[in-house]
Design brief:
Layout lengths: L3 E5 L25 E12 L133 H10 L2 E7 H4 L1 E8 L2 H6 L4 E6 L1 E4 L4 H7 L3 E3 L18 H5 L2 H5 L9 E6 L10 E2 L2 E2 L7 E2 L19 H10 L15 E6 L6 E3 H14 L3 E4 L15 E2 L3 H19 L3 E5 L16 E2 L8 E7 L18 E4 L13 E5 L2 E5 L2 H19 L1 E3 L3 E3 L2 H10 L20 H6 L18
Parallel strand pairs: 8-12, 8-14, 11-12, 14-16, 16-18, 18-19
Antiparallel strand pairs: 1-6, 2-4, 2-5, 3-4, 6-13, 7-21, 9-10, 15-17, 20-21, 22-23
Length: about 625
């Protein structure tokens, strides 16, 4: 990864225009000021008010913290089960008649004769109180008629005149709060929603010309963080990489080698190190195991992903989230305008087809998810969308050979600190996306970074971390050189280095001799980095899932992320100090031991020891 000063991002507003003016009168008054171009923001909705179904109305509040006349105090906050059952303004919190597990209140009928919400007439599931049709003795047989369950003309009375549970989302299974309210305050502050991830992770990506958009929107209780979207340059472009000598282009022989290997396979020292060819005699990957490459896209027409005229790159389900930026290029997931994503993909799953190289798991399916552009710029908003999308697709695993971008004031520093509001927003958005993906069964595997940093003692202190590598539930990979030494550039650190894998360790410009050979658009090339170590780990994860997973609905094959991570870490070859250590984690991945589930202790006593300071 190459780290240059980041650039402020401009957005073209063309998706999901949030034209709602509803409810805009309550809360901070928008102060509109135009700038030269639209600016992109991440709007992160507060977890206590989230729209993901986990939270109803939030502890302590009805719909909006600013409107104290409708707030619910901590003692009688609405519980998850009853948050969508409406309370009239006048009777929100009467001590004697607060919500219980069986009863609700209504303005007119809270104490109707001897029928003060008798247990036999409690709320039927799926219905809220309609205006004027509560539980009276005369309606014993029809406690809540379907006709009057939050009818359009009654919805406005649910929680006062302005903050009803709106008819479109009042009882929606995915939305506890009225999503319209979130859209309305964004519109009132001068924003246009570009991507709505509120259902999955409570995040919206918004474009605005209002120079004080973040300040205005942050004043609403519903909003936890607002961060401006920036980009950092993490990879060189293809032309830059070749010109600088960091990428060595290789020509493949026209015929396989005499040993029966693919023409360039004998130059893939990393594959020999982790014994992929031996493992492939047992398991070479299932096509129903689907691996996301969250990167610069994949050259879907590359000959080394084809076998018998069929590619293992799924362009149909690929997605491009690089809507704009300094170097967008072709907006198709199966066109890699850079080279990085294709190089990663070849390590993962280049086919055994008599052409070029062979990946760790050559028969699995690759799904390109483009979040970095042709110039190597990676936007946090694109990464958040890409990771969330992987969760929506329920992919088996994703490879993340990048760190999320940063704000321009920090000059693209790798570490995001809680003390900085923009960096805090980045971390929260990415980590919500990661949690969503993992909850959907996606194993998360990441490069640890190329800054040779002790991640246990990050710059800026313990409240700073690089994401996704240091995020919970992510398997972080250290890069190794040809002798299983820690690569000079690779980050490390107690508690964050999980496993080690071949990444290259070329300090003298020797090229392919100690770099990683893989596919690049239209050909093959050698490159190095933790970006190359991570897909070796992801490929072994794909073999584990293929070998030990089970059939799942919709023609899927599945193994839980916890099981995958445990298998990766328990089948390693130990390096350095016995057991876990800060340089190598649990040890060097081994494809053969992984597919055989061989957890017996084994160490490579020839490998150099960790030389990093204590």
């Amino acid at each position: 990864m190459t780290h240059n000063p980041s650039r402020r991002r401009s957005r073209r507003a063309w998706v999901l225009a949030c034209g709602l003016a509803l409810l805009a009168s309550v809360g901070p008054t928008p102060a509109l000021a135009t700038s030269a171009a639209d600016q992109s923001y991440l709007v992160i909705l507060d977890g206590d008010y989230a729209l993901d179904g986990s939270y109803a109305l939030g502890k302590g509040y009805a719909l909006v913290g600013q409107d104290v006349s409708y707030a619910l105090d901590d003692t009688y906050a609405l519980g998850r089960e009853y948050a969508l059952y409406a309370l009239d303004q006048a009777y929100a919190l009467l001590d004697e008649y607060a919500l219980t597990d069986q009863y609700a209140l209504d303005d007119s009928y809270r104490s109707f004769g001897t029928y003060a919400l008798d247990s036999g007439y409690a709320l039927n599931s799926g219905y809220a109180l309609g205006s004027g049709y509560a539980l009276a003795s005369q309606t014993a047989g029809y406690a809540l008629d379907a006709t009057y369950a939050l009818a359009d003309d009654a919805a406005g009375n649910a929680l006062g005149d302005s903050y009803a549970l709106l008819d479109a989302y009042a009882l929606d299974e995915n939305y506890a709060l009225a999503r319209d309210y979130a859209l309305s305050i964004i519109a009132a502050a001068g924003g246009v929603v570009m991507a709505d991830l509120s259902r999955q992770i409570g995040v919206m990506i918004v474009s605005s010309k209002n120079a004080v958009f973040a300040e205005t929107l942050s004043g609403y209780a519903l909003v936890q963080e607002v961060g401006e979207d920036f980009a950092s340059k993490q990879f060189p472009s293809l032309a830059e990489a070749i010109a600088s000598g960091k990428l060595t282009v290789v020509s493949a022989p026209a015929v396989p080698s005499a040993t029966g290997l693919d023409p360039l396979e004998d130059q893939q020292w990393g594959m020999s190190m982790i014994r992929t060819r031996d493992a492939q005699q047992i398991q070479s990957g299932r096509s129903t195991v689907r691996i996301g490459v969250v990167d610069t896209g994949i050259d879907g027409n590359h000959v080394d992903f084809g076998l018998d005229g069929v590619s293992n790159v799924d362009c149909q389900h690929g997605a491009d989230f690089t809507a704009d930026g300094p170097g967008v290029g072709n907006p198709l997931a199966c066109v890699d305008n850079n080279f990085h994503g294709t190089h990663v993909a070849g390590i993962l799953a280049a086919r055994r087809n008599g052409l070029g190289v062979v990946g760790v798991a050559p028969n699995v399916t690759l799904v390109p998810i483009k979040v970095c552009d042709a110039d190597g710029h990676c936007y946090v908003s694109d990464a958040v969308q890409g990771i969330t999308y992987a969760g929506d697709l329920k992919l088996n695993a994703i490879n993340m050979s990048f760190f999320v971008d940063d704000d321009e004031f920090q000059q693209s520093t790798e570490f995001k600190c809680q003390s900085d509001p923009t960096q805090r927003a980045y971390r929260e958005a990415v980590e919500r996306a990661l949690k969503h993906a993992r909850r959907e069964g996606v194993s998360l595997i990441s490069a640890l970074g190329n800054s040779d940093t002790d991640l246990a003692n990050p710059p800026g202190g313990k409240n700073c971390k690089t994401v996704p590598a240091m995020s919970d539930g992510v398997t972080g990979t250290v890069a190794l050189g040809q002798s299983s030494e820690k690569s000079y550039y690779s980050s490390w650190g107690n508690g964050f280095a999980d496993v080690s894998a071949p990444g290259g360790n070329d300090e003298i410009g020797a090229g392919c001799a100690n770099e990683i050979l893989s596919t690049i658009p239209g050909g093959w090339g050698c490159f190095q980095g933790t970006s190359m170590a991570s897909p070796h780990t992801t490929g072994v994860a794909a073999l584990i899932i293929s070998q030990s997973g089970k059939a799942a609905p919709n023609d899927r094959w599945a193994l839980s992320p916890d099981q995958v991570a445990k298998r990766l870490q328990s089948t390693v070859i130990d390096l350095g100090a016995k057991g876990y250590d800060k340089c190598f984690g649990h040890g060097r991945i081994d494809a053969l031991r992984a597919v055989k589930n061989d957890t017996s202790y084994k160490a490579d006593l020839t490998a150099p020891a960790c030389t990093e300071p204590n």
